[in-house]
Recover the amino acids of this structure.
């Protein structure tokens, strides 16, 4: 299965991506996670990306597309993949189409997790992520079993640099201007499926699974 997950910042893409990829045994590719790992390891890509991410702006298309293409040719994507946070501009979507055509691949579904703006701030500001595996938690909606510790790998939970009120607002504006147009783009070009992202995490995943299984 080859899936794109679309949705505003904090819609629940990363949370649902983990559950979908476990169930369907496909590879989770999050451009945000890849950039954050590079920032942590102080690579050249990390230094370049940090400048944009900390301001809530998009990393330039050329850099981002290269990262994704380098990843999609790897063996673990042969069985299927889920793109979380990519594409984020119409240009990225067009480049992805060309790349998939050149490798004789097609997308199965573009899944939109639809969450209204009034949910976004609280979800982002209350989020904590694992510094190793990148899993998302929430101080109110999805707390870990042990305070400050990842249930999955036991590592420390941290707050993302871009999860403060001012940067979240900028990320939302960027989403509206650059990424929201992809909903129309995929509506006319591919099979777009929408799930209501206002429900609790398990209800959203149940609805995603039934959309994917039909
Ligand atoms: P990225 O990491 O992709 O951030 P994002 O799109 O802003 O999305 P988030 O990761 O913030 O949210 P999410 O939808 O994954 O939500 P989550 O599951 O964590 O990108 C970061 C930056 O990298 C960008 O700003 C940009 O600079 C750069 N970048 C990345 N990709 C790029 C690209 N393609 N092009 C250019 N630049 C790029 O959930 C959020 C919170 O809510 C968590 O606390 C979670 O526990 C909680 N939650 C989840 N679901 C529910 C629910 N149903 N009910 C209640 N709480 C919930
Ligand atoms: Mg995410
Ligand atoms: Zn972890």
């Amino acid at each position: 299965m080859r899936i794109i997950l679309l949705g505003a910042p904090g819609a629940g893409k990363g949370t649902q991506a983990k559950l979908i990829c476990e169930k369907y045994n496909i590879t989770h590719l999050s451009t945000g996670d890849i950039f954050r790992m590079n920032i942590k390891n102080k690579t050249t890509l990390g230094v370049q990306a940090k400048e944009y991410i900390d301001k809530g702006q998009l990393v330039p298309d050329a850099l981002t597309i290269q990262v994704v293409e380098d990843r999609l040719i790897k063996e673990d994507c042969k069985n299927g993949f889920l793109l979380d946070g990519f594409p984020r501009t119409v240009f990225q979507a067009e480049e992805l189409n060309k790349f998939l055509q050149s490798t004789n691949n097609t997308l199965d579904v573009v899944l939109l997790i639809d969450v209204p703006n009034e949910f976004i701030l609280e979800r982002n500001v209350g989020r904590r992520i694992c510094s190793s595996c990148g899993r998302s938690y929430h101080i109110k909606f999805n707390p870990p079993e042990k305070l400050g510790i990842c249930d999955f790998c036991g590592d420390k939970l941290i707050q993302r640099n871009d999860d403060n009120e001012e940067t979240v607002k900028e990320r939302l504006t960027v989403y509206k201007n650059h990424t929201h147009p992809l909903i129309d783009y995929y509506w006319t070009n591919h099979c777009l499926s929408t799930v209501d992202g206002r429900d609790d995490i398990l209800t959203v995943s149940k609805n995603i699974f039934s959309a994917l299984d039909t």
Q: What stands out?
A: Strands lie at 2-6, 27-30, 81-84, 109-114, 127-130, 136-138, 157-158, 192-196.
